[in-house]
Each structure stands twice: as structure tokens, then as C-alpha cells.
Amino acid sequence: MAVVSLALFKKHVRADDFADDDEYLQHLLDTAESAVITATNRTQEELAQMDNGHDVPTPIKHAIMMLGAHWYNQRESVSSVQMHAVPDSLQALIKPYRKLTE
């Protein structure tokens, strides 16, 4: 089950008034979801149990949208224009949910 809907992600990246990028946006959303959940060292089910027992915490959802939006706006890893790193705020959203490995 998707953590963030495509409709909500499209609003986040201000692309909710056209459908041309829908397939690409869904790809970014799926990839960001996988990356963020992997960064927590937890499963989606574990994350859902941490908040209200049936939904992934809002900070994790926002981190997924932030990472997907970053990739949407910075489509190449190397560019001749100004580079933008992934925001530190992304780590701040994920850190409280990260399970430390033993």
C-alpha cells in the first residue's frame, strides 16, 4: 500500500493541474518511499504501529514527499548549474523513527 498518494504528491510539487508527468511522479514517489523506509531500518508495518497503529507517521510521509520533490526538481546527479543537496530537514524527519542496529 502506498504511503503517500499521487494526488497529494502532485500538490506538493505543484503539478496537480496536469497529468503529463504522472508516470514519472509515481516512479519518484515509489523510489522515495523505498529509500526513506529503508533509511529507518524498519518495515512499513513497523512504522505504522509506532504512530496510531494503522498509518505511517506524518513526518515519514513528509520526508517521502520532500525526497521525491528534490529528485523532481534536480533531475540529474551532475549539472553545470548550482547543485542542491538533499535538505538536512529530511534527516531530521527520519531520525526519530530510525531503528539502531544491534
Overview of the molecule:
The protein is mainly alpha-helical and 102 residues long. It has five helices and no strands. It has helices spanning 6-12, 22-39, 44-50, 58-73, 88-94. Helix 4 (58-73) runs antiparallel to helix 5. The longest helix is centred in the first third of the chain and has 18 residues, at 22-39. The radius of gyration is 14 Å and the shape is globular. The N and C termini lie far apart (29 Å). This is Phage gp6-like head-tail connector protein.
Task: Provide a concise account of the structure shown.
The chain has 102 residues and is an all-alpha fold.
Distance between the termini: 29 Å
Q: Could you report the average pLDDT, rounded to the nearest whole number? A: 86
Tell me what portion of residues adopts beta-strand conformation. under 5%
What is the general shape? globular
Helix content: 40-55%
**How many DSSP H or I helices?**
5
Order of helices and strands: HHHHH
Number of strands: 0
Largest sheet: none
Q: Radius of gyration over alpha carbons? A: 14 Å
Which blocks of ≥5 consecutive residues have pLDDT under 50?
none
Find the structural class using helix and strand composition: mainly alpha
Question: How does the SSE layout of this entry go?
Answer:
Blueprint: H1 6-12, H2 22-39, H3 44-50, H4 58-73, H5 88-94
Helix pairs in contact: 2-4, 4-5
Please supply descriptive tags for the structure shown above:
102 residues; mainly alpha; 54% helix; Phage_gp6-like_head-tail; Phage gp6-like head-tail connector protein
